[in-house]
From TrEMBL:
Residue ranges of every copy of the NADH:flavin oxidoreductase/NADH oxidase N-terminal domain listed in the record: 8-234
PANTHER family recorded: NADPH DEHYDROGENASE C23G7.10C-RELATED
SUPFAM superfamilies xref list: FMN-linked oxidoreductases (SSF51395)
UniProt xrefs under Pfam families: Oxidored_FMN (PF00724)
Name this polypeptide is given: NADH:flavin oxidoreductase
CDD domains linked to this entry: OYE_like_FMN_family
GO MF annotation terms: FMN binding; NADP binding; NADPH dehydrogenase activity
UniProt KW keywords: Flavoprotein, FMN, NADP, Oxidoreductase
Cofactor(s) the protein needs: FMN
Coiled coil location: none
Length: 245
């Protein structure tokens, strides 16, 4: 292993955060939070065990940023209100106490809301799986400009909560069919305003989210973005440059 990957166990940095090795645990939903999205003891134990495995950084599973439509599934972690910060602090401290860098992923599920309607997205273009399950009720409402601006603020406040709870890195979820992907992909974004059409317009929401998060946490705090190279949908994102990326 060390011959093939000689730097795997050497320290690295993301911005000003030093990580003891190059091993990162990617975000993966556990369904171990309380029903209201608050941190539970079983969630903390899960991440404590992962941190004890000598991973350099753990990206804690996706956390929803508002109480409206961003929550994707039952027992999903929440970061949409200050009341969650005590539990999030407990979780971040547990990871740090095991010599591991805690990162948290913040998200809005967009049209991929497994809880069913109401759903909101860039355009009223349903996810086929949800449409099969819920029919017309699965057609998402197109976000208004005012709602988009509010979500930009919600992401920013979520990043602020993460930092103040003790997380050292924040990851913005812009992949896997969730809301930011719905804006990026020309298949799911048929808007005619300055959030749709050209690639520059389709990236605008993500750019504003990223910028607002940085304004809340400061330039020296690391923020990373998870993106999909392709969404495997006709006329969607591709890696050859013909779609989003």
């Amino acid at each position: 292993m060390t011959n093939q990957f000689p730097t795997l166990f050497s320290p690295c940095r993301i911005g000003n955060v030093e990580i003891k090795n190059r091993i990162c645990k990617a975000p993966q939903t556990t369904g171990l939070s309380h029903m209201d999205g608050s941190v539970s003891s079983r969630l903390v134990r899960c991440y404590e065990d992962l941190a004890k495995g000598q991973v350099g950084m753990i990206i804690v599973e996706y956390a929803f940023v508002d109480r409206d439509c961003s929550k994707s599934a039952s027992n999903q972690l929440g970061i949409c209100d200050d009341e969650y910060m005590v539990g999030l602090g407990w979780l971040a401290d547990t990871i740090k106490n095991n010599d591991c860098v805690p990162c948290i992923q913040i998200e809005h599920c967009g049209r991929q809301r497994f809880l069913g309607p109401p759903m909101k997205s860039a355009s009223p273009n349903p996810w086929p799986l949800m449409y099969q399950r819920y029919g017309q009720a699965a057609i998402p409402q197109e976000l208004t400009i005012a709602e988009i601006h509010q979500l930009v603020e919600d992401f920013g406040k979520a990043a602020w909560r993460a930092k103040n709870a003790g997380f050292q890195v924040v990851e913005i979820h812009g992949a896997h069919g969730y809301l930011i992907t719905n804006f990026l992909s020309p298949f799911t974004n048929q808007r005619k305003d300055w959030y749709g059409g050209s690639r520059e317009n389709r990236f605008r929401f993500l750019e504003q989210v990223f910028t607002r998060c940085k304004e809340y946490v400061g330039e020296d705090f690391p923020i990373i973005v998870r993106l999909s190279g392709t969404d495997y949908e006709p006329g969607g994102m591709t890696t050859d440059g013909s779609g989003c990326c």
